[in-house]
Give the backbone structure.
Amino acid sequence: MNNLTILLPTRNRAEFLKRALEFYSFNRLGAKIIVGDSSSDNQSKALIAEYTSRLDIVYLSYPFEADIVDKWIDMFGHAKSELILSISDDDLFFVEGIKDACKFLDNHKDYSASGGQSMLFTIDNDDIYGNISSWRCEKLQSVKLGTPELRIHEKLANYNASWYLVHRHAVLERFVEALKSKRDVIDLWLPELIESSFSAIYGKIRVQNRPFMYRQIHARRTASSTKNHPQNILEWLVSEGAKKRNEAFVDVVSDELTHVSSYDKAVAKQKVEQYFWCYVAYTFYCLYVPPKNVMSMAFSRYHVIKKLRKIRKKLHKFKITGMIHEMLNSKETVPYVELPLIKKLSYNRYLHEVEEFVREEHNYL
């Protein structure tokens, strides 16, 4: 895999880094690994020395307080290969799956990214080895529609992140330039969303139904950045700077859409804004629907409204409630979205304030 570089940021997790390097060494990875280390001690640096004879490793050192986005951008600048894979120090990727993804991209130039399915697990006490206390498969989906507009719509309306797939360097290069242009408003969440959108614009995305990665989920979140960040989409939408982040996303993604299509910037911005709120609606549904065994639509709506009432002041402030109201009540149908709560969706999210929304939904129930 001489045409692949793996970007592996780490910070104060030498034991996880050792597990990952041992795994890739044992499975004969055969690709260059760039380790970006911002640890407060020398454990990870000393560890790297143990593996330089067994793995092709480039070690980069960063300040402890380095922001994860800035660090990743700099690490990417050291990668010259045609293909790029970003991984975490606590995740394990199947080497055969990586090889298959690289081979597929070599033979299918109309695809921008390739990978497989993700298995999520937790270990007692957040240890590196031990009893697996929970396990589930995160179902990722391919994007195979023919035009950039259709692909980005499909991607955001049924969103799953493309970050941990093998990508083309050329697409990520444009993604990095977009990040740099909006660096003052970029947080920990937005890069993943922008990258997924860029991948859909510049090609199809192939996700095989085969194991591709094990991802360890931590009961005690071990953030790779010193900055606090929201834990779910609604917290993110009502957090400080939300309006500027939304505008930044629409701006950079619509620039790329105009780059590959005949749309002018105004039309492209309108379309991308629509797709962004499709993403919000989908993610909102995934976070706040009741258990799957509850089949009553009224009961589902009741639980959604309970959630909304708890945060209605923030929703009112950022005028998000109108979008959700329209999501539940509009006659306009959005393609590709088949979940019951968001089957009908309008994009005019500013029509109703919180009180009107709650009152109308209460009358419905």
Q: What stands out?
A: Confidence is low (pLDDT under 50) at residues 221-229, 288-305, 311-365. The beta strands are 4-10, 32-37, 57-61, 83-86, 91-93, 111-123, 132-138, 166-168, 204-216. The first helix runs from residue 14 to 26. The chain is about 45% helix and 15% strand.
